[in-house]
Amino acid sequence: MIIDKKLLYIVFIIFSILSMYAFGLHRYAVYLSMLGALSFIKTEIKTSWSFLGFLFFLFLIFALQLGTSHNGGGVIYYFGRDLFFIVLPIVVVLLLKGAIYTQEKAEIYILRGIILIGVFVFAKRMGSVGSFNIVENFISSHSTLETPSAPLYAIGGITALICKRRKEFLILSLFCILASKRIVTAGYVVVLIMHVLKIYKWYSRKFLKFTFISIALFVNFGVVYMMYMLGNGAFDDIIYLYTQLPTQSFTAGRSVVYGFVFDLTPVRTLYIGNGIGYAPYLLHGKLSSIGLDLLHSDVLRLFIEMGFVLFAALIITLYRSVKGKMIYLLVLMNFFLLTDNYIIYAEVMFVFYICILLVDNYQKRNYAK
Fold it and tell me: Distance between CA 262 and CA 277 in Å, rounded?
């Protein structure tokens, strides 16, 4: 079956409007700009009825969410909500995969679409900017220019670097700095260092890939353990010594949440997990007085919801599946997940998956030559 791209674009305009109405989230407009960029690609979009049926099923879940109380929902509500936002970008990107792989320079349209998002975001925020001190902004994590769209610029910047789009790389790097989000900038710098060292060449060797996967496991589980220690006040003195800030301020309140979550999660469930939606259910239920909707660490969330075994299997599978310079984007996303909630930020994951395909397409074109 061949789908008219204009019809697909209209569907997602409707989806974005419904999302903004239901959840008050303007960020779903990202879908509009990305699909608008893809609409310039001269190709047909082919799919099967079964695939469209699965897409309809996801929209049905979304429709059910509209009729469910946002504050009084139980674990089933959070399971349905989070499953929808996790799976939706994967489905959409699979639907558009053919369009991306048949266009020789699809990365140009996508990267310029991300830049356009940045232009609108910063133009809106510039009017409220007073003094701008980069060092102070990163230490305190408070900046009038800080924006949830920061990961888009980092993902786009690394994609531009890999695809040798110099102008787009420089613009998106500037946007990444202006966005003043610590974990995004840290991940961006680490990946740039990896690029300079040409880590992707090492990663193609079997033994070194095994070593890299072992490091990834150690880092992710190590971060979970550090969060446990943060929640119990083990680093309070060190943090205050070097930043002159209490741990709660330095971590933007996350340390308190980590402590409560570990206290309320039975140890026996950490082996097999508690299921998708458990973390927000915990925050809205037993920890509602804190006033946070999200755990602010997808690494910790995945560990609690998936359990030790599945969490380790997920890391191994992801790091084994990437090829060539795609490892840069995976490491970048792994950094984001350390202290943020991007796995249910459908617009961020949408751009991430699109860029994975762009890099894969770029590598195949160049290897073919």
Answer: 16
